[in-house]
Amino acid sequence: MSLHLGAIVDALGGRLEGGDPQTLIERIAPLDTAGGADLSFLNNPRYAAQLAASKAACVIVAPLLRAQALARGACIVTDDPYAYFARATQLWARAHGLLAEPGIHPSAVVHSEAQVDVSASIGPLCVVERGAVIGAHTVLKSRVTLGARCRVGARCIVHAGVSIGADGFGFAPEAGSWVKIEQLGAVTIGDDVEIGANTCIDRGALDDTVIEDGVKLDNLIQIAHNVHIGHHTAIAGCTAIAGSTRIGAHCTIAGAASIVGHLTIAERTHISATTLVTRSITEPGRHVTGAFPMDDNAAWEKNAATLRKLYQLRERVKALEQQLQDDSRARKP
User: Fold this and answer.
1) How far is CA 150 from the centre of its chain?
2) Of 159, 225, 228, 287, which residue is the catalytic one?
3) Residue 225 is among the residues annotated as catalytic for this protein
4) Tell me: the pLDDT tens digits for 165-187?
5) Which of 61, 62, 136, 187 could hold 69 in an S-S bridge, CB 3.0 to 4.6 Å?
6) What is the pLDDT of residue 48?
């Protein structure tokens, strides 16, 4: 199924220039592989060189690149090409029936005391336990487990293999063994949340683990009991967040970061890949680590530059020490 350029602009806005609204678009494609019936986009000016060579029928661009785009053909001019592209993919998925249909797959197991909105979609082999709540237009892909009394809001997408509401890791030491602490809380997930495949969100020990509205979680993330993640925070894959940590709104956490328990992360904090966060972050900013502890970005870059020269510095110190010894021996009678 194709869409006319004019229909795309009517649905999403922007300004079509240098092209015919009746042009049929057969797919959305990258600049370098797009063909004569494809829609593409250019968000980063660094890739402007690809624009002239692209065979796309139409390219989504910012006003700054309008002239370059028109020199090669049709373009849609918009203030935020990347967001426009994202909405175009959503429009395409709706038009081509790629979105999940409401209903419960016959292989899913849904407890009679769970509440599932009639507009929600529950995929194959899902398990929805007693007292769980699923909001409007939420989609659970295959093999998702939603534990007892856990709640997922409206318009969420939960990908394959996600576990929501497994017991948190809580044990009390006693005489050389461990006594299990029953996890009496649940998990509360807000609206418009997306959770990547095989991510695990543990239920709280007493109060709930909370994921606020608009949070985006990648694959293979571990969120321990009683963690609280603020609205519209995005976390990349393989991140691990230990128990009772509070992460503010509008944060970004890159892949394979690790955050120890009982910390507070300020709103709009940006944590880079593989960062080990061992203390609370009270002021927003970029925090990076590598082979040594977390620091703010500017200080980390200076330390990293010094580390690369460490061997040379050692050799210089050894040479200076040797020179001092030689001078000292020369001065002796």
Assistant:
1) 22
2) 225
3) yes
4) 999 999 999 999 999 999 999 99
5) 61
6) 86
